[in-house]
Amino acid sequence: MEPTADQSATNTERLSPSLPVRLSLAPYEAVLGGCDGAWWPYSYNLLDELPVLVEAMDGVGVITRVILGIEPWPDIPHQVAVSGHSVTAGWLASGQEQNVIVLCSYLKGFRSLLVIPPAMLADSAAWLMNTPVPVDGSRTATELLAIATARSEVVPVGDPL
Fold first, then answer.
1. Could you tell me which of 80, 93, 32, 92 has the C-alpha nearest to residue 53?
2. 3-class SS of residue 147
3. Contact 148/120 with Cβ under 8 angstroms?
4. N or C terminus: fewer CB in 10 A for the chain?
5. Which 3 state secondary structure label does DSSP give 140?
6. What is the bridge-based pairing of β-strands 23-25 and 100-105?
7. Residues in the chain with pLDDT < 50?
8. What is the pLDDT of residues 41-74, one digit of tens each?
9. How many other β-carbons are positioned within 10 Å of the β-carbon of residue 44?
10. What is residue 134's predicted lDDT score, i.e. its pLDDT?
11. Are 150 and 128 within 8 A, CB to CB?
């Protein structure tokens, strides 16, 4: 079965291949069971975004496979070329956590990252980049995204509407 997703999720293309990767990564030993950090792509175009992310993850071993939620990504190709090798892409079905990406390396295990939506406001994205997904499962990546969105919608007392 091929993945399907809402094609209207984003029409945004990566503005420039030279834009820096927006990645927050904890030391591997620091996060057992939770997300190892957060990634804020510029678009939901996996062919554009994945090579930049994988290259930025160079210090955690050669990434050979990624697994990500099917709902946010309009197209998930089976293979993505990255720096002279192929990365196999798989997807999590609906009903499973959709706002994470798992990057797998044969030598170094795997790292999981919260995926911040490309259209998220910068202050909310910055908060998420510095807020780890709790190891105890008390908050999922999706719940943290909802909290970040709610934080940006709060109007401070005394501010005119």
1. 80
2. helix
3. yes
4. C
5. coil
6. unpaired
7. 1-15, 161
8. 999 999 999 999 999 987 777 899 999 988 888 8
9. 23
10. 63
11. no
109-115, strands of its sheet edge to edge: 23-25, 37-39, 109-115, 100-105, 63-69, 85-92, 79-82
17 vs 160: CA distance, rounded Å: 40
* pLDDT number for residue 93: 80
pLDDT confidence of residue 48: 92
**Distance in Å from the first CA to the final CA of the chain:** 48
Whether 62 and 29 have beta carbons less than 8 Å apart is answered as: no
Contact between 82 and 52 (Cβ < 8 Å): no
Percentages helix, strand, coil for the chain, rounded to the nearest 5?
A: 25, 25, 50
Q: Which helix (H) or strand (E) holds 103?
A: strand 100-105
Phi–psi pair at 46, nearest 5 degrees: -65, -35
Q: Which helix (H) or strand (E) holds 110?
A: strand 109-115
Q: What region, left, alpha or beta, does residue 37 occupy, with left being phi > 0 and alpha being psi -120 to 50 degrees?
A: left
Q: What is the DSSP string of 59-74?
A: GG--EEEEEEETTT-S
Residues 98 and 115: their CA atoms lie apart, in Å, by 9
What are the distances in angstroms from CA 26 to CA 31, 32, 36, 45, 129? 7, 11, 5, 25, 10
